[in-house]
Amino acid sequence: MNWVLVIVGGMVGAPLRYLTDRAVQSRHATAFPWGTLAVNVTGSLVLGTLTGAVAAGAAGSHLQLLLGTGLCGALTTYSTFSYETLRLAQDGARVPAVANVVASVTAGLGAVAVGLAVARALWG
What we know:
- The protein is an all-alpha fold.
- 84% of the residues lie in helices and 0% in strands.
- Helix 1 (2-25) runs antiparallel to helix 2 (34-55) and helix 4 (78-90) packs antiparallel against helix 5.
- The two termini are 29 Å apart.
């Protein structure tokens, strides 16, 4: 049953990642990977909230597998972040490449912290 939950979450997360990335990126006329940043920060927020809910006993392991491992695992993408950062640097856009690293790590960690704080406020 656990693997089915992960698969179902992934089946939702992968197309959601693609559609969100394309929708966000289409609104920006720059090479900066806004879409990837958006899905990674969103996934970090969801995972932080979910982790806090599980820790507080408000959510169980099945929801953690469905949303945490499946949905967030397919929604977020470290490999695309890495590739897009390298591509920016190779294309001579070193400042945007560094900005992508700083923004992604800072916003991702911040989103997890906000998610945990929200969970504590709701269920702590």
